Amino acid sequence: MNQYPEHAGNLKNTPFQNLSELNDAILNGFAKISIDTNIALKWVQGGIYLPSKTRTQALLYMLLPYATIAGFIIYTIATSSWLLLLTLPILIFSFLLSHPRSTKAFGSTKNWLIGLIVFGLGLGLSEKIDWLFAFLLTFTLIWYGLHSLYRTAINGLIQAALEHEDLFYLLWNRRVLGIQLNNGHHYWSD
Q1: What per-residue confidence (pLDDT) applies to 10?
Q2: d(C-alpha 92, C-alpha 148), whole Å
């Protein structure tokens, strides 16, 4: 017995009659799907309908920050720049900056920080300040790896949910999937 309704219109607060109408609205730019980040990260570790390509990408993005920190430590030891080891706690900040909800926490400060990092990278490269370039490149690669991990997980789960109705209904009934219309209306299952 199928425990999920046949049409999305049977679900409470759904503005569409079925999943194909929702897909059409998304393709036409009238709607978009939002999903809980933590659920997406759990799904990418081995959920249903997970393509192996998506899992491999997520694994590589997950390993990039750790490989980058290891490379930074090797650079520090190789150049005998022992004071650079004091910057390792600052690199933890890049883990916080890369989280999708960091925009709410940091607000417009996040944009200024990213601008300063880009300026510092350019300055370190043009003025041949190796330690500055190495530190900010490490910071940037950590941000890129984690940001890409979150994007891969979220986009992969949304794509899988739109292709497989049972996954869509499962996420909808668990209240981790929402629909946002371009007129500003938000729809959740409750």
Answers
A1: 54
A2: 17
